[in-house]
Specification:
The protein has two domains: 168 residues, Aminopeptidase; 121 residues, Aminopeptidase (3-Layer(aba) Sandwich), CATH 3.40.630. The two termini are 34 Å apart. It is globular and about 65 Å long. Strands 1-2-3-4-5-12-6-11-10-9-8-7 form a twelve-stranded mixed beta sheet, sandwiched between helices. The longest helix is centred in the middle third of the chain and has 15 residues. The chain is α+β, with helices and mostly antiparallel strands. 38% of the residues lie in helices and 28% in strands.
């Protein structure tokens, strides 16, 4: 058997190739699934150059193995479409992507596949500053990257990916109610979006761009108590069977009253009632308050993910 890395220029072909692999662990792979929905539809604000990559394992002696023998020096396979690769005995073992301005992301994959990905990507993105993915995979990738570039790296934020199939009833009623945000709420949402980025240390995109899109799509919600907005949350991405809840934020002066709990509970129930089989979200593992809230609502952790931060200056020195 051999491993090979392939990059795609066309989002539709990439989606066709990787969807069966991603859907086998839909909650764990929700980020890339949500990205593909936007890329294929064309409704996104990602920038070029993007990377849509896959690591494939090819059985020895297959036609795919002969194709892998022609692998280029950068780890990619020239001259074959996603459809060709699927017919030639190659199995997807991992995906890796970059949609600027966001950091490099990756799915879970075997350690040797993460090394192959690092070797292929190092000459393509020498300025890479950050990556995230399942803890074991991204750590293996970072170790390989460090050896290739002679640069250092540090481990950053750790998050849990949580999945909910049924909302647990709240023991106490939260004062207020959930309402869908409208255009008149945009400035508040931008202000809170800035606060969310500051307090959560999450790379969440431009608050104005994201706020406008979520309002337009009817995916942004506020918790209103006594006529005033107290908290916000959104359905930030969708997959075939699920929806990701994100942008959960309560300003500091409103915390401790259960507003975010009530909002996440009601939004999750709304998504389930709308036909989704489950919801998922990311939570900072260093924040037991938020993780405890989500677990009481019925969210259960399915995988742990981590950021790694690369020494960009060292990387650049090693490639000059």
């Amino acid at each position: 058997m051999s491993l090979t890395f392939r990059s795609f220029d066309d989002a539709a072909s990439y989606a066709e190739r990787v969807l069966p692999f991603l859907l086998a662990a839909e909650a764990e792979n929700n980020v890339l699934l949500g990205i593909l929905v936007r890329l294929v539809s064309g409704d996104h604000d990602y920038r070029e150059p993007m990377l849509l990559g896959v690591v494939e394992r090819i059985e020895s002696g297959s036609s795919g193995d002969r194709l892998a023998a022609s692998t280029a020096a950068d780890g990619s396979v020239p001259g074959a479409s996603a459809e060709d690769t699927g017919r030639q005995g190659a199995a997807v073992v991992g995906c890796i992507w970059r949609t600027p301005p966001y950091k490099l992301g990756m799915t879970a994959m075997p350690g040797d596949a993460a090394i192959v990905a690092a070797k292929a990507i190092a000459p393509l993105i020498p300025e890479l500053d950050m990556a995230f993915g399942p803890t074991d995979t991204v750590r293996q990738f970072a170790k390989a990257w460090s050896k290739l570039t002679r640069g250092g790296y540090s481990e950053g934020m750790r998050q849990g990916v949580y999945r909910l199939d049924e909302v647990n009833p709240l023991p106490n009623k939260v004062q207020g109610q959930m309402v869908e945000a409208v255009d008149a709420d945009l400035q508040l949402i931008i202000h809170w979006g800035i606060g969310f980025r500051r307090d959560s240390h999450v790379q969440a995109g431009d608050p104005e761009v994201l706020g406008r899109r979520l309002i337009r799509e009817g995916a942004m919600y506020l918790w209103i108590d006594d006529g005033e907005p107290r908290s916000m949350a959104a359905a930030v991405a969708f997959t075939e069977n699920g929806a990701r809840v994100g942008w959960v934020y309560t300003p500091r002066e409103e915390r401790g009253r259960g507003y975010a709990t009530g909002l996440v509970a009601d939004l999750s129930q709304l998504l389930l009632d709308g036909g989704k089989r489950f919801c998922f979200l990311y939570a900072d593992l260093a924040n037991p308050t938020s993780t405890g809230i989500y677990e009481r609502l019925g969210y259960r952790k399915v995988v742990e993910a981590m950021d790694v931060i690369f020494d960009v200056e060292a990387d650049e020195r090693s490639t000059t």
